[in-house]
Write a structure and sequence with these properties.
Number of helices: 15
Number of strands: 10
Helix content: 40-55%
Order of helices and strands: EHHEHEHEEHEHEHEHEEHHHHHHH
Largest sheet: 5 strands, mixed
């Protein structure tokens, strides 16, 4: 294996990569130099895997599924976070609670309007496409795709967009630019959706399983920090990101706090629901089986205990 271990991650700050960036013990345990590679979207990361530019990556399951269908040699070896997609809009638009939880009515506010979303194939774009089709709104709402999510908020400020689907980080960033709010929280947009998992190149899974075990042990510790010590986690992330304050990061972490590395029954069920919808919507050419996407052997050693996505008494 090469001496440089390349890890792909997204610019969203709610995953463990920004904690692990300064983990000197991780570098020591892996006995390799770590190169952190930033991507705007999951589909861009899939392309990097395809070209052999990265060894491991944090990304949502839909872009990975699309890549696997096209022959990209990757597998998900662990979870990380669920329910990380929200919808935001300027404050003149109503929240879903004002429609008694009716998603169709909430979306109908934007008939003839523009909604921004990350690039085609991202988990956020797939969720939006699914709901618009389900409620027969595909031809009534205009969708604009963005390679860099940050530009979505900028276009909301310019009033080019009326709303957006994206990450908790997008919601907080937008609030710094214009009067805006979350109109559909994560729990309404596909329960248990796998907002990111840990993917490794198949060649590494086969040749260096010890690397994966070592990384997942550190990923597990970082995930626990996000759950149990948000203030500490926010301080570390703020320090690594440079331009973001600790309160800003804490605001992002509080929007969607479901962190764990487990691959639970709900996580897997939501993923396979995505497989079906991706096939129905034409993103993939065939239905994939669960073994095409996941490799479970590593978690059996690193996280044999109960999952932590749902907070339980006396369980951290």
């Amino acid at each position: 294996m090469k001496d440089i271990f390349s890890i792909g991650h997204l610019s969203t700050i709610y995953h463990t990569s920004f904690i692990l960036m300064e983990d000197k013990k991780l570098v020591e345990d892996l006995n390799r130099t770590i190169e952190w590679v930033l991507f705007g979207t999951g589909p861009a990361m899939v392309k990097a895997f395809e070209k052999g530019q990265i060894d491991m990556g944090y990304m949502g399951l839909p872009p990975a599924i699309i890549g696997i269908n096209k022959g990209v040699p990757i597998k998900c070896v662990a979870g990380g976070h669920v329910e990380g997609t929200i919808m935001i809009a300027s404050e003149k638009y109503n929240k879903i609670g004002e429609f008694d939880g009716d998603i169709a009515k909430c979306f109908s506010q934007f008939i003839g309007k523009n909604i921004g979303v990350p690039s085609r194939g991202s988990i956020h774009e797939v969720i939006l496409t699914y709901f618009l089709k389900q409620y027969n709104l595909t031809n009534n709402i205009n969708i604009k795709h963005y390679a860099q999510p940050e530009f979505i908020a900028l276009d909301m400020k310019k009033q080019i967009l009326d709303a957006a689907i994206g990450t908790p980080a997008l919601a907080v960033f937008a609030q710094t630019l214009l009067p805006s709010h979350i109109i559909i929280p994560a729990k309404y947009l596909w329960p248990n959706n796998p907002s990111y998992g840990i993917f490794f190149h198949k060649s590494l899974i086969k040749s260096h399983p010890e690397i994966i075990i070592t990384f997942l042990k550190h990923h597990k510790k970082a995930s626990k920090l996000l759950r149990t010590s948000k203030s500490v986690a926010a301080e570390i992330i703020s320090r690594n990101f440079g331009i973001l304050s600790k309160p800003y990061v804490e605001s992002v972490l509080n929007i969607s706090p479901k962190y764990c590395i487990a691959l639970t029954e709900n996580y897997l069920k939501a993923t396979m629901q995505f497989v079906n919808k991706l096939y129905e919507l034409g993103y993939i050419s065939e239905l994939l089986d669960i073994e095409h996407i996941f490799e479970f052997s590593f978690l059996e050693k690193v996280h044999p205990e109960e999952n932590h996505y749902i907070k339980k008494k006396n369980l951290t």
